[in-house]
What we know:
Largest sheet: 4 strands, antiparallel
Low-confidence stretches: none
Amino acid sequence: MGFFSKLFSVTSCRNCGSTDLQCVNQLYGSNCKLMACRKCNKVYVYGQAPLCANCGKPMRGTAYHSGGAVVPKCTSCGHVFDCDERGWVNID
């Protein structure tokens, strides 16, 4: 990223506050972006989160699915996103 994009970026890491984020996955048909911080190497869900198919809570955690991609994971029941969500909720 360039100097000005870092300076004017409004999205920051939820762990360390850095604005040096990289999109590692964007779920098709939504505004759900999984962004990795280049400073602390943590991945978080930004924009929209899918609602868990099991318990209905927003899936704010992340995990690797069987195909190797980073996807949302429910922090309440542990369900991993598999295109079976109940809808979307804005989290930012």
